[in-house]
Amino acid sequence: MKKFTEKVKDKLIKGWNYYDSMAKSTMVEKIEYELGEMENMFGLIILGSFVGLPSPPMNLTLDLLPEMEKHFILMLNKVDTAESPMSDLLSTFDVI
Amino acid sequence: MKHDSKTSCLFYLGKGGVGKSTSSALTALHLAQTGNDVLLVSMDPAHNLSDIFESELSEKPFQLTENLEVKEIDISYWIKKYLNEVESQIRRTYSYLSALNLEQYFGVIKYSPGIEEYALLLAYKEILNKYKEKDYIVFDMPPTALTLKFFGLPELSLLWLEKLLDLRNEIIKKREIITRVKFGDKEIERDKILNELNQQVESYREVKEIFRDKAWTKINLVMNPDKLSFSESELIVKKLNEFKFGISDLIINKYYPEFSYSHISERFTFRQMTLLPGSNIPLIGLQILKKYLLQKAPFENSFSTQDEMLES
Q1: DSSP SS3 for B73
Q2: Which of A45, B84, B214, B297 is most buried, most CB within 10 Å of its CB?
Q3: B83 chain-A contacts, CB cut-off 8 A
Q4: A58 — contact with chain B (CB < 8 Å)?
Q5: How far is residue B239's CA from residue B224's CA, in Å, rounded to a whole number?
Q6: pLDDT of B95-106, one tens digit each?
Q7: Where are the alpha helices (DSSP H) in chain B?
Q8: Which residues, other chains included, contact B180 with Cβ-Cβ below 8 Å and sequence gap of 6+?
Q9: Element (H, E) at A47
Q10: Chain segment B159-189, per-residue pLDDT in tens
């Protein structure tokens, strides 16, 4: 009897952990997507002058630039693929 | 930064050609003659002070009289210095390949709007640090547009920084949630961008406080007794009031006794008025300026707006 209850308990815990990790990964995926978009927005606000968008005073951009390599490269890549959205989409899905 | 030094900064601004350089030169000379240690700085790219004192001026202070040093700010030097600093910082933090492509951008940035006033602000901050022992630092300012941008830059930058800080904090909050779910209580690396933003906020707040501290900063407006310079002066006062700056001394250059100035105090407020009577000969050369001060004694006759009201 004790063994049986232990088994049921283990199954329940496993089931709960499985459900928990599923829920967490869906939640994390959503937040990660949101975070990525926010980072893009932040990059675009500060580095907009490089691609012809209105931006904060140039001194703020330049003072933050040394810490924004990731944003800078990402933004320049986005500009490169802006004229061919299809190739951007295909590269996102890693088709070719 | 607290006002622990004894230095007062006097800024001379006004419409082009009203006599900002002459007024600032006369004031600096008067202050030096009355026993103060004075530095006169030309922030105006036209650099009229070299002509007024008939001397070759540069970034290196020139000892004009016993108590008076004069220097000129070279804006292009400050822009170059600033861009070089940013570029070398980027080369330290970026990977080799991305830093390689930056040169083409930096070539264009030096002509970007906003760089000139920032270069002036950097020069101003260095002067403030370097010449703490002076009694007075007198600034001959550039034409109106650049001067107003210079005074507005800390406020404008702070407005942007506040919004950027909000967005950055939101990003960090989201990143913390993800890290906690994925890796538990693992320590999160400090956000370098947030640090930089906070440092910027502190630095601009400091300058903003200095500009608003009336013991430290005195903004003196120069105008001629004519309609055009009066209209532009009104505009300058209005713009400065938007940044919550007031006028300390209103200087009427080339003043003649028939000119009635009573209407000016009705249009905008200032704490003191100085009348610089017109001169028959051009005010060029140290000896002529000294003679003018001796004969006309304009600063001995400065009066506050309250005195005038009492008299009337």
Answers
A1: coil
A2: A45
A3: 62
A4: yes
A5: 19
A6: 766 666 677 677
A7: 20-33, 49-52, 75-93, 96-100, 103-109, 115-130, 144-183, 192-212, 227-242, 264-267, 286-296, 305-311
A8: none
A9: helix A2-47
A10: 999 999 999 999 999 988 888 888 877 777 7
